[in-house]
UniProtKB/TrEMBL annotation:
GO terms for biological process: phosphorelay signal transduction system. This is Two-component system response regulator. Transmembrane segments: none annotated. It holds the Pfam family Response_reg. Keywords: Phosphoprotein. Residues 6-123 form the Response regulatory domain. Coiled coil: none annotated. PROSITE patterns: RESPONSE_REGULATORY. It comes from the Bacteria. The modification 4-aspartylphosphate is found at D56. The keyword Glycosyltransferase does not apply.
Length: 126
């Protein structure tokens, strides 16, 4: 495989970052980086090319939705596939994420297979 997609996992809980990283490795991803908040994620996004963002919704000080809006407002990053992960299944949250330009949405807890399908759909949509 010539194309090796790089993934940025953003979550303020180390345990959740590790879970997502392990699931990504389980489905074949090798180039995985992570960030503990939106600010550090934006710094990483501006210093390296990534092919996918997987971000938690509930983060401080910048929420996942605020982070998504920052990514979408950046000319270089705006088309980057972005998967929002959350324990919240409220329809207004899903709608807010869609309006902000999220590529896909995953409700916790989820399996590696669910993650694989959402990633495949996100790359297909990009």
């Amino acid at each position: 495989m010539d194309f090796v997609p790089s993934v940025l996992v953003v979550d303020d809980f180390l345990t959740m970052r590790r879970i997502v990283r392990n699931q990504l490795e389980e489905i074949g991803f090798r180039d995985i980086d992570d960030a503990e908040d939106g600010e550090s994620a934006l710094r990483k996004l501006r210093s390296k090319d990534f092919h996918l963002i997987i971000s938690d919704w509930n983060m401080q000080p910048m929420t996942g939705l605020e982070f998504l809006k920052e990514v979408r407002s950046d000319r270089r990053l705006k088309k980057l596939p972005f998967i929002m992960v959350t324990a919240e299944s409220k329809i207004e949250n899903v709608q807010a994420a869609r309006e902000a330009g999220v590529t896909n949405y995953i409700i916790k807890p989820f399996t590696a297979e669910v993650l694989r399908k959402k990633i495949a759909a996100s790359f297909a949509a990009a």
